[in-house]
Amino acid sequence: MRRRDFLKSGLLAGASVTLPGVYGNIFARTSSTTPPAFDLVAIKGGEPDAMFDEAIKQLGGIKNFVKKNQKVLVKPNIGWDAVPERGANTHPKLVSRVIKHCFDAGAKEVYVFDHTCDDWKRSYANSGIEKAVKDAGGTIVTGGSESMYQEVSINAGKSLTKAKVHELVLDSDVFINMPILKSHSSTKLSLCMKNMMGVVWDRGYWHRNDLHQCIADYATYNKKPTLNIVDAYYMMKQNGPRGVSTADVAVMKSQILCTDMVVADAAAAKMFGIEPSDVSYIKIADSMGTGKMDLSKLNIKRIIL
Amino acid sequence: MNSPLLRKIRIAVSLIFFIATTFLFVDIFNLITPEVSNKIVFLQFVPLVLKFITVLSFTTFGFLIILLLTILFGRVYCSSICPLGTLQDVINNIAGRFKKKKKRRSNYLTEYRALRLSLLTLVVVVFILGSAVVINLLDPYSIYGRFAGNFFRPILVWMNNLAAYVLDSAKVYWLFPFDLKAFHIIPFAITLAFFVLIFVMAWKKGRLYCNTICPVGTLLGYLSKLSLFRVIIKEEDCLKCGACARECKANCIDSDNKKIDVTRCVNCFNCLTTCPTEGITYTFAFSKNKGEKEELNNSKRDFLTKTSLYLLSFSAIAAQVEKKIKVTKPSTVPVFRKVAVSPPGSVSIDRFNAKCTACHLCVSACPTQVLQPSFLEYGFTGMLQPRLDNIAGFCNFECKICGDVCPTGAILPVELEKKKLVQLGKAKFVEDNCIVKTQKTDCGACSEHCPTKAVHMIPYEGKLVIPEVRDKYCIGCGACEFACPVTPYKAIYIEGNSVHLLAEKNTELKEQQKVDLKEEFPF
Description:
The structure holds two protein chains of two kinds.
Chain A: H1 3-18, H2 20-31, E1 40-44, H3 48-58, E2 71-76, H4 92-104, E3 109-112, H5 120-126, H6 129-136, E4 139-140, E5 149-153, E6 162-166, H7 167-171, E7 174-178, E8 180-184, E9 188-190, H8 192-195, H9 203-208, H10 211-218, E10 227-236, E11 249-258, H11 261-272, H12 280-287, E12 300-304
Parallel strand pairs in A: 1-12, 2-3, 2-7, 3-4, 7-10, 8-10
Antiparallel strand pairs in A: 1-11, 5-6, 8-9, 10-11
Chain B: H1 3-26, H2 34-40, H3 45-54, H4 62-73, H5 76-81, H6 83-98, H7 113-128, H8 133-138, H9 140-169, H10 185-205, H11 208-212, H12 215-223, E1 229-233, H13 243-247, E2 253-254, E3 259-260, E4 280-284, H14 298-320, E5 325-328, E6 335-337, H15 349-355, H16 361-365, E7 371-373, E8 386-388, H17 401-405, H18 416-419, E9 422-429, H19 435-438, H20 445-449, E10 455-459, E11 465-469, H21 479-483, E12 492-502
Antiparallel strand pairs in B: 1-4, 2-3, 5-6, 7-8, 9-12, 10-11
């Protein structure tokens, strides 16, 4: 790294720490040139990478979200020490494809991390994501060290008013949220908003203080994902979020792209077979005005390959 | 024999063993695989003897190599292979640079023979009676392992974290901070006490630990009375100048009487280069061996019996004190773990306690840091041996590295598929501490983390779900206890199995139906 880059990134980091919202919003505004034609794209029937190629085309390509020389954070679910077929972690093929698109659009760096539940090194390795990221030219960063998390306040939060958030969330220009759709023993479903538990340090606080409310509270935080990509290729139907074996998994070969977490979660819940209003945190997020779970008025692109 | 060369070879070999063994214990990057790890500790004497007793097989005959080496060449193990020996040499070497060169005539010390033999006997007797506690405390390899794990590893961690911090500030993600998840003060203090003791002994008197306390040193020392090659003083060439004795870090050269105590000579060969007349040499010495027989006198025997009896009664008393570990103080209900949780592959706590030398290699290798040194969790006889500390971490379902690296066979290697069913203990649910009951909100962190779904969620009040434990599927990995967010006390914890059992495979999993990929979207 040259000194100039170092200084520049230092300044940017400083700015983003003090003014994360302002900084993020400026970029968000300047970056979208053509407004996407659809509110949500749902696709099924293909491989994870091929589906993403097709779906992102409908949103005008990743260049609508990623500009030249921007720093991108891709946040998949890498929670568990499990192979891709178990449907516990985001599909590595999808992760590497998204990174490739980002670099094609001129991204300067693409970072990937998750605050894992199992040991981070083993989870990164056995999920296949570490290799996928490295092969695609991205950078793997740990989420397992408290020193990399910085405290922010969640102004609109009811139960969760502050949280320690990973520095990459604060530093990156573009934040791509990539959850995997799966069942969850306590929140019913793990989705976009639930995936945000992997960018904060103290998850126990959420569990102790009304989990659903905390998930919905964090969704109001102003450093929101630029784009959400819900991976529903392997869908864990039962025993989530960890799963016991491949018997838990249905091969759905689906994907949802959406800029709004609540909308994406509502659509994914329906795809799973649950009404969005039955998932408490979706309902709370809807009532807090973070997003709308009613999909009827949206412009949805549906693709079956 | 070309004496300077001998010394150089000794230094080179010992540094190779020392650096490799040290790296093994401080390896926070998981660079060393179990296969390599096994090769590095392959010649460590006490682990090999224990492994020979535990898993009788051809791979465990390494200790015979050490015995053979000793009979041929003397205490090669002590001079070159034992990491604690090399550490003492390093300490003594540094001390030598600080000390003023006194014109002492000799370094010679008389042998504390009664102490040496008593300690060796004590180790053997207590071990035969089923406890490894004395050998744990005194085995030089295990002591070194604890030093490396307790002191050198944190130093590497700090260095790594400092470097990671600097790089991280520059947004260069090459190194990552390593968080040490637990610190147990008493095991650390015991280790520190040993370190201070050995440091002082080595600083002042070189290999004093090896020649008074170390049971391996005593065993190999007396065995080397048979050794074919040894350092000897040639009567006719010796001027009694004492040059050799001053260099001797084992304090075993009595130059006035032109004698070397072969039981204490660690073959460092430092003396060979000092002699002005080549009066001291390393050579074939069978003819010199006159079979010196020493009778133990009554007072020694008395001392021995008394010490063993004292120690045995101590452990008997300790065993009767109920082993309680405080898990949760009453949020509303006080909960105590009665039996500590031993690592998978240890078969039973009694077996484990009898075979483990507490070298802490598994503690260093464990990726989740769930293995932590114990104090009295296993009782007195299991002091310092590793246990599962579910506050620090939990046993990774897909991991079996502790059994793969264990040099003594105390933790046997288990096939991964079998390890996934080995039940170390059972989860106990304390409903009155559970958030779902106390706060009437969803939680389920325990069930989320459960790899077998032994902990599953069942309907509670309204839409709430609450955990339930099914013992038959539980393997006691402790993920539930680790994940339980209740503070300051947990609502679910693992009660150890004294004898490990086999859990049932969860057969309630229903196979998912094939999905019709042409079906329209439900929205």
